[in-house]
Write a structure and sequence with these properties.
This protein is an all-alpha fold. The protein is built from six helices and no strands.
Amino acid sequence: MKTRFLLLAISCMLVSFVTEAQKSDAEADAVANLLGIQKKEAVKKLIHVEAKDSAAFWKVYDDYQKDNQKTIKDRIQLYEGTANSYSNLTPKIADSLATKYFFNRESQEKMLEDYYKKIKTATNAVTAFEFYQAETFLLTQIRAHIMQQIPTYGELMNAKK
């Protein structure tokens, strides 16, 4: 239950950021850092790490969080760019946005795979699998919550009719 509350808090924070105009890269960095801290708390509840593997796991996880900051920041900016483009969405802009989302998702998946391997080497395959499951769960929940809060372009067009 606490994990779901934490996910809701993370999602609300991201949605509120996306719905306001971004003032600077520093703000996106701050949101990405806060998200990282909140995600780490959720991961602590989702992954059982043996005492003998704890130091190694958390070192690699912290490296993952650091490396993942750019992907998170890019995703936040994509949400903002998507919302800002609704007023003048053209086929070219839509295609550009889709391409950026595909690239962002591929980057995230590649990073998860790379860090799965690093965690498996540092600890074991079970802990690495738990990492993958937890991260995938959190990412899916956060994305779903954000997408439920932001109307699709089609919904906006239908509402105008």
